[in-house]
Design a protein that fits this description.
Helix content: over 70%
Largest sheet: none
Distance between the termini: 49 Å
Number of helices: 4
Oligomer: single chain
Number of domains: 1
Radius of gyration: 24 Å
Amino acid sequence: MKIKEYQKLIQEISDIDLEADSIAESRRILAELNERERILAELKKRINKDIQNMELDFLEKKHKINVDYAEGRSVGVISRVRGKSKVKELKKLQEKYDESLESYYAMRYILDELSLQMKKAKNPLNNYIKGRLGGL
């Protein structure tokens, strides 16, 4: 999944009204928060899988560069003509890898923070319900 898709889903998940005027509304909001927490957990699994796939892809490309240079051949004619070295290719690959992973790590951090906020938002709702039902 692309970063833009994650951002869109997070925006949809984080948009919730937490004000409750009745016990029924508090329960509805709690149920909605639980569902959104479940979705956040699923998104976190997906983002971790995307990170793993990116890491695997990086390692495969790095291995290919190392093998190509170990066998005495470059990636192509253009690479030989331009005088690209193994170090330059590996550095370029590493920079691209770091740049792409940075946004996924940031997204994972946002998911963690949003999950914590949702857990904290449950306390006032539970306290409201307990307060209203306190006489039972």
